[in-house]
Structure formats: structure tokens, C-alpha cells
Amino acid sequence: MPETILILSDRADRQVRQLQASLERLGFSILTLHLADIAFDTRFSSGLAIPGLNGALPAGVIVRSISSGSFEAITRRLGILHAFAQMGVPVWNSAKAIERCVDKSTTTFLLAHAGLPTPQTFAVENLANARDVAERELGHGPLVLKPLFGSQGKGLRLIRSVEDLPQPEEVDDIYYLQRYVAHSGPPFSDYRVFTCAGEVLGMMARRADGWITNMAKGAKAEPVIGTVRPLLESLALAASAAIGTDFAGIDIVPAADGRLLVLEVNSMPAWTGLQSVVPVRIADRIASALAARIAPALDERPAA
After folding, report:
1. How far is residue 304's CA from residue 302's CA, in Å, rounded to a whole number?
2. Distance between CA atoms of 154 and 243, rounded to whole angstroms?
3. At 27, is the pLDDT very low, low, confident or very high (cuts 50, 70, 90)?
4. Residue 20 — left, alpha, or beta (φ > 0 → left; ψ -120 to 50 → alpha)?
5. Which residues contact 239 (CB under 8 A, 6 or more apart)?
6. Is 280 exposed, middle or buried (0-12, 13-18, 19+ CB in 10 A)?
7. Strands (DSSP E) found in the chain
8. What is the DSSP pairing of strand 220-222 with strand 39-40?
9. Cα(112)–Cα(108) distance, integer angstroms
10. Cα–Cα distances in Å, from 77 out to 5, 39, 106, 270?
11. pLDDT (tens digit per residue) in 117-144
């Protein structure tokens, strides 16, 4: 009977379908579930009740998405991922890596702590503290306000004056403010580099008419050519190592003075845009890298 890989996702998107096909070609059985449907259940020796597995554990887990929910719900779901790891199941990405990426302030802290170039950033609670930051920093140029938990360019605001700061209820009283990186445009551009198991699988330039260059906001993908490629590879691999991701999408922006700055590390990245400009099959490479981790993990897993 083939070993089962569990794909955790809220929807069967293109990435999920590609991963399933790639893993099946490697001989695995695939089970796709919402993380919310897995329960802690001490009737089973694993302590987990996974629909369709009758108390058994999967050989590996890929986290494609985690749906929004209350603080309690998200804490429980991340606890499930921690439990898989405790039982010796490889989880890509791990709960620890996801926690570090979802919280942008932690990502920024770890990037800076590792000595990687990243824009100056300030994460504070309450409007009074955010006003203090803005009054002090706006003399050096605009700030970008980002949701602490957010993706795909949603909720980004350019802060040019103290009056641009939103009210606390609009941002859950958390103000993540990052110095705006001035770069040429329009069109504006930045880079997305995809890493997996210590390798760079591909990269793309994202070009847009506005300063927000996310693919979900209408940016266009283009191949990356020239001498910038080795620099992007080096930064992306260092960023992935600093956060501890198994696979990731790293966003890097070129400043007007030529510097490259790491903006974010995404632990649940899509790759449709990237796949359109690179020859390597992203899903195949993720699947084969995970498969290489599974055999040793099965040998080391505690007996049920």
C-alpha cells in the first residue's frame, strides 16, 4: 500500500492539483484536507484524528494554505502541525516557519538579525506610538503600512503624512511601518525568487504600472536575465535559511541606488506566474525534494 502524503489546503487550486499529480507520479497516495478538519484525539496512539486515515499518520505533509479564523482556531491548527513534527512526520513548511512568515514583524526581525539587507521597519501597537514613528521617520521619505498578517498586496497603504495613518480599528491597533524603497517607475518592478530544500528553483521579475507589484494585483511576470541573478540567488537562500523554510517565495526589491533589499519571505507561495517564465516544473521539484526527506523520517519515526 503506498504511503500517503497529506496536502493541507482550503481549496483545490492549481498548485494543489500540480502537487498531487507530481506526488502520485512518485508513487504516493494523496489526501487533501482542510487543516480545520483534523482533530486532537487521544483515542489514537498518534493523538490525532485525520479523516480517511483511521488513526494512522501520513508519510509527509505539505501546507498549501491555512484559512483565517479566531486566535484560538489558528493556535489549534498550528498545534496540529507541531504535533505532526513531534511524531516524526515531515511538514513542509513547519509550523515554526509558517509562524515566522505570517507575522511580518518576526520575519523582518530575523532577516535583520541575520545581517540581510531589508528596509528599516517599525512595528508598534496603538495610534499614539505609530504617530511617534511617523513624525520621526517621515522626514526621510514615505512609509508603507502593511497588515501584520496579510498577503497578495492586500491592505498596503503609502503613508506620506501622520494624517494618513488609519484608525486603530482598521488595523487591529497594530501598525507595521516599513520605509518605502524608492525605485524607478512606472513601470515598477521587483523580484520573486523561489527556493526549495536549499536550492533556487526559479525567479521572475514582476512589473506593474503601480508601486504594488503583486501578481494578484495585476503585475506581469518576466524572466530575470543578467548579472543580478547570482545576487538574487544568494540573498534568497540566505533569507530562507534565516527563517527556516523548506520552500518559500522571497520578495526582493531593487532600490534606486542599486541595492537589493529583502522585503518578505512567503511560506505558502503560489507559483503560477513564476512557472510561466521558468523551464523547471516547480511542483515536480517540491515533490521530489519532499520524497527525499520522507524515507529517513519513516525510519526514525517512533513506533505507534
Report:
1. 6
2. 23
3. very high
4. alpha
5. 111, 114, 116, 248, 250, 262, 265
6. middle
7. 4-8, 29-33, 39-40, 48-49, 60-63, 91-92, 121-125, 143-146, 157-159, 174-179, 188-196, 199-208, 220-222, 247-254, 260-266
8. unpaired
9. 6
10. 18, 9, 19, 21
11. 999 999 999 999 999 999 999 999 999 9
Instruction: Say whether 94 sits in a helix, a strand or coil.
Output: coil
Task: Give dist(CA 149, CA 267) in Å, integer.
Answer: 13
Distance in angstroms (rounded) separating the CA atoms of residues 298 and 88: 8
Which residue bears the cell 507561495? 269
Most confident range (mean pLDDT) of 29-43, 179-193, 204-218 is 29-43
**In the numeric block, which cell numbers belong to residue 171?**
488595523
3-class secondary-structure state, position 54? coil
* Polymer length of the chain: 304
Backbone angles phi, psi at 125, to 5 degrees: -105, 145
Task: Please name every residue paired with 181 in a beta bridge, in sequence order, or none if there are none.
Answer: none
On whether the CB atoms of residues 203 and 196 are closer than 8 A, the answer is no
Say what the pTM is: 0.92
- The separation between CA 229 and the C-alpha centre of its own chain, rounded to angstroms, equals 21
Residue with cell 512518485: 26
Q: Which helix (H) or strand (E) holds 164?
A: none
Q: How far apart are CA 92 and CA 286, in angstroms?
A: 10
Per DSSP, the residues of 198-266 read TEEEEEEEEEESSS---GGGT-EEE---STHHHHHHHHHHHHHHHHT-SEEEEEEEE-TTS-EEEEEEE
Residues in contact with 191: Cβ distance below 8 Å, sequence separation at least 6, in sequence order:
203, 204, 205, 206, 224, 228, 232, 251, 252, 253, 254, 260
